[in-house]
Amino acid sequence: MIEVVLNDRLGKKVKVKCNEDDTIGDLKKLVAAQTGTRADKIRIQKWYNVYKDHITLRDYEVHDGMGLELYYN
């Protein structure tokens, strides 16, 4: 289990526990459950790289305690 920190830069910081073999789509569902936002309205990125839903966290080299950016479409 790893813990990922997502910051939307609007004052909301979400900590989510997930597995490294979870996909970005799974991470979006976990974030949606905590924030109350629909999963299809969430975009996760790091700098200018928008993360695709079907790729795993391990493939993106997301580690424990790593911070990602959370945007709303």
Automatic annotation (TrEMBL):
Highest taxon in the source lineage: Eukaryota
Keyword Cytoplasm in annotation: no
Cross-referenced Pfam families: ubiquitin
Ubiquitin-like domain boundaries: 2-73
Gene3D superfamilies cross-referenced by the UniProt entry: Phosphatidylinositol 3-kinase Catalytic Subunit, Chain A, domain 1
Segment forming the signal sequence: none
PANTHER family assigned: UBIQUITIN-LIKE PROTEIN 5
Name recorded for this polypeptide: Ubiquitin-like domain-containing protein
